[in-house]
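Retro notes
What went well: the complex prediction finally ran end to end.
Inputs used:
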Amino acid sequence: MKLAIQLAYKNLMGAGLRTWLNAGVLSFTFVVIIFYNGLIDGWNEQASVDGVNWEYANGHLLHKDYDKYDPFSIDDGHGILPKIKRKNLTPILIRQATIYPQGRMMNIQLKGIDENQTVVKLPTKLLLSSKAEIPAIIGKRMAKSANLKVGDEVLIRWRDKNGTYDATNITIAGVFDTNVPTVDAGQVWISIEKLWKMTGLEKHATMFLANKDYSHKEISGWKFESKESLLQELTNIISMKKVSGSIVYLLLMAISLLAIFDTQVLSVFRRQKEIGTYIALGMTRFQVVKIFTAEGAMYSIFATILGMIYGIPLLWYLAEYGIAYSISGDTMGVIIADRLYPVYGIGLVIVTVILVTISATIVSFLPARKISKMDPVEALKGKIQ
Amino acid sequence: MKNENIITIENLVKRYKVGEGEFTALNDISLKFSRGEFAGIVGPSGSGKTTMLNIIGSLDNPTEGTAIVLGKNISNLTHKESAHLRNKYLGFIFQVYNLLPVYTVYENVEFALILQKRSASERKKAVMEALEWVGLENMADKKPSKLSGGEGQRVAIARAMVKKPELVLADEPTANLDAKNAHAIIQTMRQLNKELNTTFLFSTHDEKVMGYLDRMIHLEDGEVAKDEIVEHNSAQS
């Protein structure tokens, strides 16, 4: 094998520009695969941190009748948790409501939360400092869609525990900026004490946010979703994005492998005389097959070196300064920052290099197999076989 | 030593399929060659010269009959065994030199020794010696594309001789050379034949080459028309 590698190296170096063109295309594939996976991993990491900071906390304790994917469960999905069990938990009561910004009607989720909470990053302290009768905070997406800003008053209509409609004005005390659309879009946050009074659902909660000291024990009528299981949902969504994105780099890889395959097919045809000479000088056909296969594998080594030369500074720059992401999270329904910072793992780089090297070796071996059936006399004459 | 048979060919037949029918390239050939001979298979194009050389060089197999080269029956050799025979004991010189284009002169000559897994120092000594034999010791770093026809064929001779083979098979070695270079090349081979006692077997229809041969086997339509020993005067040999 050492001989095959030595000869393959000489042949590739001797082939000059053709070698570097192939290696260049392949190195681009390397860099794109590493970049894309790094981007997804960076997104996952960033989304996980943002998700925990803004929404998941250390887990959710949900009323048994509440299903976050079913808005009809909001009406009945609430209850009272005995005080003794509320340790390290922050209650949230969710009700359906309608606001009328500039005369338009918008259905929203009205969420009551403890103003003193620190378990998530929602700026609930603004609810305390406001002088308004019912201060509210909303996210930038909600502010944009409702065309509301700090200090605006807006009419809100809700139903109390008996189903009776009531309405009043709320005042926007703050607009927060978050990457987590699920605490922002279509939601208005007010003090839970005020919501209890407005609805008559004193001490009721739809769900609780667990803080870092919370340790869950079974509570009848309530179900617990750990931070890990909540993150798993997020990871699953991002993984699906990864799968769809992998089509792009599979295509890129197919193009570069096709370039190598094409070069090797041409080589086997064009270098018949050379193949015949190798055999006449005492090489077995299998040894010649090994040279041609090693040439293909060596393309991936050259590509790795080439990719490192321009890829390391480029990928480092992107990881350091991030990439502005033009698609906002609310249109995709997942947590995504305006600027993503790719994260590259050594495992990702090694797996990519191995994957591309194996693929390049296979696509080189396929045309090289033909050599094993070649007639050396015809090969020496340079006749196409 | 000189009379030791290194090639024994008996009732050799080689047929090729041509379309629906067959073409007989060699028909019932029986010949023997001794160690140290400087012999040639001569005849017009299509007479079967190259086919015979290819069979002796274990690049091709006979259809019928036997070809025993250095004690090995060519028909019975596996790919690996025939590769070993070529690598260890045979040297080839081709009409169009067949130098490996991406290698330097030095690397082309060194190639056969790499296959023999000789050490780097051993290879260097042998390559430089071979290049000296052909007078190209100053062109070791040149690529084949920078060589003239005569120089290219000298490199091919050095490549064939560097491993000091038992038998050198030269297929029309002077066909692409002018008269001056052809004489120089053939004289070099003649000298190596005498100094190293290497057997040379040519396939040629070049009269310049024929003038140096000790033995000429005339092939006509795949059959031996004449097998003659040539007497040289002292000046020519």
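What we learned: The interface with chain B takes residues 3, 6, 10-11, 13-15, 273-274, 276-277, 279-287, 375-377, 380 of chain A (CB under 8 Å).
What to try next: split runs per interface for comparison.
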